[in-house]
Amino acid sequence: MSRRDFTRLFLAGGSAALMAHPAWAQIAPRASALPAGGPAAGEAFWKGVRAQFVMPPDLAVMNAANLCPASLPVVEALVRETKSVDQDPSQQNRARLSGAREDTRKRLAAFLRVTPEEILITRNTSESNNLVSNGLDLKAGDDVLLFADNHPSNHQAWTEKARRFGFTVNFVEQKNPHPGPEYYVEAFGRAMTPRTKLISFTHLTSSVGDLFPAKELCRMARERNVLSMVDGAQSFGLLDVNLTDMAPDFYSGSAHKWPCGARECGVLYVNARAHDRIWPSSYSAYPGAVGLSRKMEAFGQRDEATMIAFAEALAFQDAVGRTDIEKRSRALAQQLIAGLRRIEGFTVWTSPAPERAAAVVSFQPGNLDSRRLLAALYEKDKIGVTSRGGTDRPGLRVSPHFYNTPEEIDRLLAALTRYRQRGV
Asked: Does residue 144 surpass a pLDDT of 70?
């Protein structure tokens, strides 16, 4: 389908016309509901889940740590609500969308097991993290303690603001292989001082998939009157996160990764006890309706269609089953790790222990050139993963999710074995 055809169909008939177009039907048949029986039905159920995504059946993309496909309910909601605004941009029609935005906030709160008053709807994890680093009143003499393997953008946000406002940033170094959760609890405990005002760490690292003891670290920080910030970019939508149990002060996430939602939508959770510790970064019109959103979410005109689509993504995960999604993704990762460890010369950076990892798997493919291998996997085998350059545990990263299948893992392992034997 050409861009012109897409635009013509979208304007003429919206999602119904678009989904009915033969080119779209060739991509994936539309499925109206999940198969009966749930996950207990085995692979038949998961194939039905896969049919809810418009990726071609022969394309295996396993890069959830960067970008996930949106499911059909999300795509349809995005098209429907965008079309609604463009057909009728009146104040009256747009007022309806404000209520839908608050419905999304309620669903986010239920999804994370907190209250709507503690939820901000942002554009992505980066914006959520920056709302915290911008909004806290930090000054010379204060320390912020970061995990050294946080996402680089989060590091930059803290170090640049430290230069501006005079506070100090210290680091807890990453150890490979993952030394176990107790090691990091002790390491953060040793590194904290009376000057430490906040600790920040990634719940699941995007580099090699190290899983952090978030609940234990947040409890330790709370006992020392230190704020805790958890970057949930790699756990939100993958793990069955319960923020009431974890009890951080701040937790961030994006819709476009593991939740399989629309792009440019995210979440920031701010624990009620920290509401008076954070200042807005933006002062404008159209704030949220409840709790902290009335102070922190005045970003001007918003795209409510993406927020409504975000709610659809969360509803879809609830329908599949969040614990089942986590189990499925973890099982695929374990299948991959076991297969990689059997390929001669390959080094797996990710721990096989369930308490130390989840569904982000990184490895060095022997003496093969990672970038050439990445290109060959996509161009010849229709397998999409990503590469990691530099000297810090380089190679390839694979992050399967619940729309992937055991057969796709086997395809990847077979291709890697073939390239290991014959070269790229």
From this structure: yes
